[in-house]
Amino acid sequence: MIKRLGFSNFYSFKEYSEVSFEFDKNVPESISKKLSTGTVIGIKGSNGSGKTNVIKAINFFFSFCLDKFSYYGVKKETRDSLPYKSFFGSDDVTEFDIEFLIDDITYIYELEIKNNKIIKETIIRNKKRDVVLIERNEHGAIECIKDFDELKNINLRYDQSIISIVDKFKFNNKMYELDMLNFEFVKLLSNVDYNGYYDFNLGVEGTTKRYKESEELFEFIKSIIKSADSGIKDIVIKDRLNEDGEKVYFPLFIHENEGKEFFMPFKDESSGTKELYKKMIVYHLVLNGGGVLAFDEFDVHLHANVLPMIVNLFLDFNINKKHAQFIFTAHNTEIIDTLGRYRSVLVNKEDNESYCYRLDEIKGSILRNGRPISPVYKEGKIGGVPPIFLGGKEL
């Protein structure tokens, strides 16, 4: 699980900013459920505040550590620029760090990059105290504990993370801890890349084929959709042959009126139902795998009442048995009441520089457990909303 993640000099974020899933002793047990690390973070902020850049930071960091930038068309044999931007083209170091909780042990990974090159890379284990497992400098020299001595003989690219090499080389000794860390980075799914938001799905036919292959998955999807749309009695899957003589699958949605059943095609359903049908497979995958889902504009095409239902999938440990994590941005305001102050992060921008904070960092009694946050948020008392001018006065 991710405990916290921080970054600096990345897009609109100049100074160090952090997103934390951690719960301290002040968090009520009804919220923490006796866990030190949460499973949901919602990010709010006005248009242009930098919300998407938080998701971009997560995706870039994880992709960099796995050497996945071939997805962006970056040829690694050349000195092409890495697919990110520093704060207004700053030449300062861009920093990332993350803490994972794995088997009750905290692992800290720190990365510094500049001019498309790794300046520093550090892996730390913290059981009762910090132990530096591996440290790499800007010249590629590696210092490490004895278990990782083989790394010293590997000639890494200037922009290649140590995390990425565990499945690329055959080691004499087991790189167990590196394997574990690599797996934590593999578990991310995101709908944001270098170019921003993209809508990833398998298409209706591809998604329906997956539902046909897994009864458990299909029942999960149906339960969500029927809860969200009371007009849908059931969903069935049919097949036909396409122009190439191949079998393809398609859904029919059963509606009932005056005791009669009507079978409606996908195209005639609401935008919200279509969105759930195509996207719930992603939520199911992450929940079943104990992964991390980083979604920008999570609420697109979804009714406000559906959002808490999806968030609660990650908060209900009878469903989220592997403690999968969900971090998202949304335009919907009321979702902040579902999240509460320990799961809500606000992003503000001043002088074109973004910064963020979790709501429990706000001092005083303006926010209290059990009270709605959205009224206070709408009034602009806690940040994250654009200024509104009426009669020449800023409210």
TrEMBL record:
GO molecular function: ATP binding; ATP hydrolysis activity
CDD domains, A to Z: ABC_ATPase (cd00267)
Domain of life: Bacteria
Domain ATPase AAA-type core intervals: 41-337
Listed Pfam families: AAA_21
PANTHER family: ATPASE AAA-TYPE CORE DOMAIN-CONTAINING PROTEIN (PTHR40396:SF1), ATPASE-LIKE PROTEIN (PTHR40396)
Protein name listed in UniProt: ATPase AAA-type core domain-containing protein
